[in-house]
Amino acid sequence: MPEPMIGHMVYFQLKDGAPAARQKLLDACKEHLRGHPGEVFFAAGVLAEDLKRSVNVRDWDVALHIVFKTKADHDRYQEAERHQRFIRENEANWKTVRVFDSCIAL
Questions:
Q1: Domains of the chain: which residue ranges?
Q2: Which of 20, 4, 21 is nearest to 12 (CA)?
């Protein structure tokens, strides 16, 4: 059985959730987190304001979605200088950060 891919989903609630602050974090995601070895999918976006069903979780501002080919790729990403720089440059505006990692078997 092949090794599962790793889905790495991160939801950021910002101290300042203004549109400009959201865009700044989106730009930082694209600059520092896209294109790491082993990434098979990258996307980042903001809360869909018009989706308000009772099951929608709405206490976040920016979402990051990355799928890695292997757990080893995910682990290298966590230690990569670009990822660490992203954290250093942006964490001051994070109110909460929630990380959801999953094994993706096709």
A1: 5-104
A2: 21
Residue range 5-104, CATH number: 3.30.70.100
pLDDT digits (tens, 9 = 90+) for 85-104: 999 999 999 999 999 999 99
The tally of CA atoms less than 13 A away on the side-chain side of residue 17 is 15
Model pLDDT for residues 51-84, shown as the tens digit of each residue: 888 888 889 999 999 999 999 999 999 999 999 9
> What contacts 74, CB < 8 A, 6 or more positions away?
6, 8, 38, 68, 101
Torsion, Cα of 61, 36, 82, 101 (10° steps): 50
